Amino acid sequence: METHELLWSRLTGQQLREPRAATAEEALKNLLAVQAQEFPYARWSLSQRTAAATAADVEQAVAEGRILRTHILRPTWHFVHRDDLPWLRALSAPRLHQANGGTYRKTGIDNETASRSADVLTAAVAGGVHLTREQLAARLQDAGFHATGLALAYLIMHAEISGVLVSGVPIRSPGGALRQTYASFDERVAGATGAAPSRDESLAALVLRYFGSRGPATVRDCADWSGLTMKDVRTGLALVGDMAPGAIVAASFDGADFYLRPESGGETPGRTSRQGVDGQPQIDLVQCYDEYIMGYSLSRHYFGGTAPAYPFGDNPMHVVLSDGVLAGAWRHSLVRRGSQVERCELDIRLARPNGHGDGQAVEAAVTRYGAFLGVPAVRAPAGA
Question: What stretch(es) of the chain map to CATH 1.10.10.10?
């Protein structure tokens, strides 16, 4: 396996190349969980893995509870499909509470406090009520909790991890930004299908979905992504080998063991990683927390960078890929006329001079981003 084959496998497995998902939900089911603390850009992470899903499509799926946004895995915000959240939360919760233990102690969240706050929050969102963070804070403060700052954040996170709260219908602020609300976990996942799996079944499912979408990847990559131990991941691989022989295979590369789906190993016959305009490199605009980056730890460097990196000055922080390799940075700005978005300007800064082919590929990426937002998109002039 060569580096370009590894990158091509990741691009195709993650559906940044054909065949793409039909819907944002299908893209999410493939990836299992998608990091989502930057909500506007996280919508794009799902959309660009589909044929034509828009920001509005993703927002509608979130509003209807088919896609849920919650703290899970490491922990940080993630999108998870409603059908997967119950078992993934149950698998993740012990490690998440362990990871948060120091902050729980710092903010005075012991077992009694967590239980009492859970009762307050359960009552607050019962019967289909969806509340903002500020509204939850008010309910907790009325009940005598010091629910501000870090303490508030971790009381809410504890409730998410414990299966009390999950994302509700987002609301739009007067300025147009979407704001998270919280709802009852049980009510929002009521339509989830299937019986609760055992821990072994959940481990096998996570490992199969992770390596099936992100392979080639290492055991450490999966452990760091999932928040599980390397022993858990190895157990999951063994279980997959028993339950679905041949579904995940091993490959050695750079002195390390990688795991992947058999059909994702190497390039499709007759194809190369160059899929752009007239044989030129394909340009992808991915958010800095995209799964193509955050799906790996030990082997993240193969894409040519160390993102997510926080920029200096006014430099953009999101990532331009050229055939899957770091090629620059980007960000978007919405230009408004009154309350209406008139256009989107994309500040795209390439690390090397772009030739004619690259220019066409960049424009194709800009056009697609505009279609996602549903407004005209243009590339901002250099130095603007």
Answer: 199-264
